[in-house]
Amino acid sequence: MHVVLAAGGTAGHVEPALNVADALRRIDPLTAVTVVGGDRGLESTLVPARGYELVTVPAVPLPRRPGADLLRLGPRLSSAVRLAARVLREREADVVVGFGGYAAVPPYLAARRTRTPLVIHEANARPGVANRLGARFTSHVYSSFPEAMPGARPMALPLRHSIATLDRPALRAQARAGFGLAEDEPVLLVFGGSQGAVRLNQVVADALPGLRAAGVQVLHAVGPRNEVPASAPGYVPLAYVDRMDLAYAAADVAVTRAGAMTCAELAAVGLPAVYVPLPIGNGEQRVNAVPVVEAGGGLLVDDGEITAEWLTATVRAVVEDGERLAAMSAAAARHGVRDADEQLARIVRRVAGGDR
Fold first, then answer.
1. Model confidence over 223-249: pLDDT tens digits?
2. Which of 44, 94, 191, 234 is most buried, with most CB under 10 Å away?
3. What's the predicted TM-score (pTM) here?
4. Cα distances (angstroms) measured from residue 169 to each of 183, 250, 314
5. Where in the chain is the domain with CATH 3.40.50.2000?
6. Maximum distance among all Cα pairs of the chain, rounded to whole angstroms
């Protein structure tokens, strides 16, 4: 079986694709996987790092209003679709599985042109243009928020296997030792997605004296493009955390943005969190966080309302109340889904004709 994955641009599109690829290989190690992505996104590093073939086609953003870009769209898109169709024919693709991003548009159209079965997964509460377009070409549409896509069936976000199978209590001591944290003091994990969040970084810097005075340690992923502060006893700043499973295991509570992958991972591992949705865009981050917060697994605060004083008081109230912390952890875990990668992989195999 040869599966072509269509995803590109951000980690939020590429990571779920790679997680399904891993699941396909666990089910059948002989499964061939090719990722078709764009020529400018994070797929250029993420895909090869996971050991999969990447073929790039020009990403063709679909303009939202008339103008010169719309007039130039036809030739650019036609060329990209021809390239994608060539990939499908040369690889003898059995199925295309799309996760969105502008880079997914040419493979979607190529699947239609070559009559290759198409499966689409939408992770976000506000579907993107690419997946709304691709959903017109197939009945195999799945979404973490099915009410947002007419005809979509429910399917949680496919997670990395190391996250989906994480046993936080079992790894806690090892994880804390690995990060240089004390085993007997609570840990606050702060991160703002793969690129960090300047606003959260500033709030945490201001809150740090109060948090440390309360005996709370801080593991802080500041983002690869942001300046890394000096470390101090009980404060571990890092540009980037490449083992998020260990970061989750070390932590008692998190402060973070509310991207779809972040919300799905924190819920699955049962880590309570303070969600601070990105205040720009279409508001999807707030919608992403609401279900787990309503389930009791986290707290929600607007970007403009979070202060050092509020954060210090809130984190102290949670970590100093063992019953409340345990209840929030259990609520998050009940809301989370750990096996969506294998669920979707088996659907892909059925659509491709591999499981009869």
1. 888 889 999 999 999 998 989 999 999
2. 191
3. 0.92
4. 12, 9, 23
5. 2-161+339-352, 166-335
6. 63
